[in-house]
Amino acid sequence: MDSVSTPALDQVNDKDLQAIQALRERMDRVRTELGRVIIGQEDVIEKLLICLLARGHGLLVGVPGLAKTLLIQSLADLMSLDFSRIQFTPDLMPSDITGTDILQQTEEGHRAFEFMKGPIFANIVLADEINRTPPKTQAALLQAMQEHRISAGNHTFTLDKPFFVLATQNPIEQEGTYPLPEAQLDRFMFLIDVKYPSYEEEIRIARETTGGGSVRLEAVLTGEQILEAQEVVRRVPVADHVYEHVVKLVRSARPGQPDSPAWVGEMVMWGPGPRALQYLVLGAKARAVLRGSLLVQIEDVDAVAEPVLSHRILTNFHAQSEGLTSADVIARLQEELHKA
After folding, report:
1. What single DSSP character describes residue 189?
2. In a 10 Å sphere around its CB, with 0-12 CB exposed, 13-18 middle and 19+ buried, how is residue 309 labelled?
3. Between 20 and 30 A from 38 (CA), which of 21, 102, 157, 318?
């Protein structure tokens, strides 16, 4: 083992080692069960699990027909948690998400207002096509994501844990949609790019999903186990050189800063804030645990860099005119950091 990582081993005890091993076995079982329903998309599944373990939220972006909704519903089926799906539409109101007061008649014959909870009161919430609803309604969901509580009229409610929001977005259709601004995108830990399956995977899709019968999934995780797993991830040790790598990566992506290369100022309009540091570390910890590792390595940080940073780096017209995306900026920054 690399000598620079050895001191962090002092922070690992036998109880944590056993918890990490048990957690990896549970997550492997989740992946196996998902594989009975979802063909391919292993990278997307891993990122979803990382978000869950790191107490983050995920935004899945991909064209229609890539099983984004099916994947999220299947993930919910594997956990004995409350699940709700919200189909976002232009006429959706905040009260349709949070709930509203309804006039009810009591047993004594009196009339009184009673608050009827909306679909946000669940452990796993699927926000389908989040960019199809106006900003006012988006804000109701985003408040819950950030604060784990909602305000509705004179009521304030704290949401039960675990609370996990997965949103989907269609990148093709822009007419009549309400794209999330950068400040709201920052609430999502990961932006997960759902790509087309490979040739071999599409052969399997054509063969295995057009027959009769359906696969029934059984829950393999409880809410208590998920909360315990999230605590285990927080206790995973990180060596100082990994923290330094995270900070250098984030600071180098900010234009006009002493730590950033000159070309970043030419290509990037806006860079990531401190929240990116937190999500890089937490994402790297969760990835290490999923792979049964006791320590976070730089390769874990590099693996989660794109989903954490891609929606936190805003490229300018110069970059866009050359066909460069935030993913290209991240890849170049990583390459230069490794060479330094």
Report:
1. S
2. buried
3. 21
pLDDT in tens, 96-109: 888 887 877 777 77
Indicate the pTM of the whole model: 0.86
- The CATH number assigned to the domain with range 6-81+162-339 reads 1.10.8.80
Domain boundaries of the chain, sorted by first residue: 6-81+162-339
> Helix (H, G, I), strand (E, B), or coil: what is residue 63?
coil
Looking at residue 148, its amino acid is: H
Strand residue runs (E) in 148-287: 149-152, 155-158, 164-169, 190-193, 221-222, 268-270
Describe the crossing of helices 223-235 and 42-53 by its angle, rounded to 10 degrees. Answer: 80
Contact in structure between 58 and 145 (CB atoms under 8 Å): no
Strand partners, 158: 149
Tokens encoding 161 = 């844990």
Give me the DSSP letters along 255-295.
TT-TTS-HHHHHHEEE---HHHHHHHHHHHHHHHHHTT-SS
Q: 5-29 b/e with 16+ CB inside 10 Å = b?
A: beebeeeeeeebeebbeebbebbee
